[in-house]
Amino acid sequence: MALSNNVIGAINFLGILLAIPIIGTGIWLASDPETSCIRILQWPVIIIGALTLVVALAGFVGGFWRNAPLLIFYLIGMLVLIILLACLVVFVFMVTSRGSGHPAPSRGYLEYRLDGFSGFLRRRVHGPFKWALIKSCLSSTSVCPELNQTYTMAQDFFNAPLSPIQTGCCKPPTACGYTFINPTFWISPIDTAADMDCLSWNNEQNQLCYSCESCKAGLLASLARQWRKANIILIITLIALICVYLVGCCAFRNAKTEEIFRKYKQGYT
């Protein structure tokens, strides 16, 4: 029984270690500057990671100190957390499966349309009050101003691998035919009817295309890209947690079987 309990404790120590990448993913989601103006996923991830840490710690203590209630708490709690993490992984996959960009003519970057994203993501930027707060946040960041320090020539800018937020918020849509002066200053549009955002462009540095639908789409594209990266870590951690949990269940069952045999032998002798 002691050996089995030590095995259970050692297995649950792996569970403690696996909580670290979950919590780390949540912290990374919260600290990414590209999506600092709209944060949705970080708290569910951090909470699941923290609960995983607590439950695995309970299993670790219960395994080494032969505390059956703690082990039962671990088995039930970890199963619930695995289910919750699996649901979160599936949810993230579903809401980020849409929203790929489309190439702009003679450009090295992609442009994005708001209607290409899932309804859940679109609702995060829908409504004048929500977007007013996000727009105010975006205009206070260095995402657009830093382009002026990086690109001075038009061709260099056109060939640049800009981020979705930069293509959607910092410049007018390519279809409008604006003339490049610098990355955040454009004049003389050729066709203001080519895109509904053509008339929304403003050379004021606190305005730019922050009121454009393309800016909302660019923000969601950056958010979806970030979530997809986070989801890879969560999927790997989920698989590892399932393996640890199954091994822990087997060790717990073997420990209970050993205990039953031990009591039977004591009663027999």
Could you name the key traits of this structure?
269 residues; mainly alpha; two-stranded antiparallel sheet; 4 strands; elongated
Give your account of this protein's structure.
The chain is mostly helical and 269 residues long. A hairpin with a 2-residue loop joins strand 3 and strand 4. Helix 2 packs antiparallel against helix 3 and helix 3 runs antiparallel to helix 9. 34% of the residues are buried. The model has no long low-confidence stretch (mean pLDDT 87). It is found in: Membrane. It is a multi-pass membrane protein. This is Protein TORNADO 2.
Structural class: mainly alpha
Termini Cα gap: 19 Å
Q: What spatial form do the alpha-carbon principal axes imply? A: elongated
Number of strands: 4
The major sheet is characterized as: 2 strands, antiparallel
Question: Beta-sheet strand percentage?
Answer: under 5%
The helicity comes to 55-70%
Radius of gyration: 26 Å
Overall pLDDT score: 87
Low-confidence stretches: none
Number of helices: 9
Identify the strand order in the major beta sheet. 1-2
Pfam families: Tetraspanin
InterPro entries: TET_plant, Tetraspanin/Peripherin
Family: Belongs to the tetraspanin (TM4SF) family.
Membrane topology: Multi-pass membrane protein
